[in-house]
Write a structure and sequence with these properties.
With about 250 residues, this protein is an all-alpha fold. It is built from eight helices and two strands. A hairpin with a 2-residue loop joins strand 1 and strand 2.
């Protein structure tokens, strides 16, 4: 599913660069290659740092979204500038491409039983007998995530949990489609990227409230939620800078 995620992102990126008239297939391939190496390396490095164990770098499991996002962003920016691609217009295409790839990748998380949510009695709750890091048994959910599971459920009984992987798949597909709509409207360069990246940060912040997590670092907030807030602050700073640049450019052209 990770491979399919990269292929889906590449297909969208190639289409978007051509549609915007800013790049071709070689540019799309260079960006995806940079995103692949940077994303996987960053996701693994973040995971090893999170658990203070560098041996985790050489294990198959353990890919953290924000670690991959940070390093891939830096590498893609470097590749894009070297190829002479306009930063804002390229980011407008990359952002929906990223949302699409993330949506596809989360299907893999669902299939392997990783990154599931807290217990729920909703009709679409899912039981994961072979989940990661463990099955969704009443005992495991109590011990690992301090879930409030009624005592009527014995420790060995599987209980349904929120399929947060599918929540993210649906949300990110919607964000991708919204990004396409913004692209087709031809709004100011950079605006689509800021909106889509902002929505992705908000989506991750919200889904964390129902995910099974044990990394609460600031009250009830998880580390991913703190990073989501940091991304939103960074996007506001970028928006203010771009707006100031446009204002100065407008004044210089008068």
């Amino acid at each position: 599913m990770m491979a399919l995620a990269f292929l889906a992102s590449y297909g969208f990126l190639r289409w978007g660069l051509k549609r915007q008239g800013i790049g071709d297939e070689e540019d799309a391939g260079a960006i995806m290659l940079a995103a692949g190496f940077g994303g996987i390396a960053g996701a693994k490095i973040y995971y090893a740092i999170l658990y203070s164990d560098w041996r985790l770098l050489f294990q198959r499991t353990g890919l953290v979204w924000y670690g991959g996002f940070i390093l891939a962003t830096l590498v893609v920016y470097w590749v894009g500038t070297r190829r002479g691609l306009p930063v804002r217009a390229t980011a407008d295409v990359i952002a929906p491409s990223l949302a699409l790839g993330y949506a596809v990748g989360r299907i893999g998380c669902f299939l392997v039983g990783d990154d599931y949510g807290m217990p729920t009695d909703l009709p679409w709750g899912v039981r994961f007998p072979y989940g990661l890091p463990g099955p969704t048994t009443a005992g495991f959910m109590r011990a690992e995530y301090q879930a409030q599971v009624p005592d009527v459920f014995p420790d060995h009984q599987l209980i349904p949990v929120h399929p947060t992987q599918l929540y993210e798949t649906l949300a990110c597909l919607g964000i991708c489609l919204f990004g396409v709509w913004l692209l087709r409207r031809g709004i100011r360069p950079g605006s689509t990227a800021l909106v889509v990246f902002g929505l992705l940060a908000v989506e991750r912040f919200l889904v964390e409230f129902v995910r099974a997590k044990d990394d609460h670092f600031f009250g009830a907030l998880t580390l991913a939620q703190l990073l989501s807030l940091a991304v939103l602050v960074f996007l506001v700073i970028v928006w203010m800078k771009w707006r100031a640049d446009d204002r100065r450019a407008g004044q210089a052209g008068e």
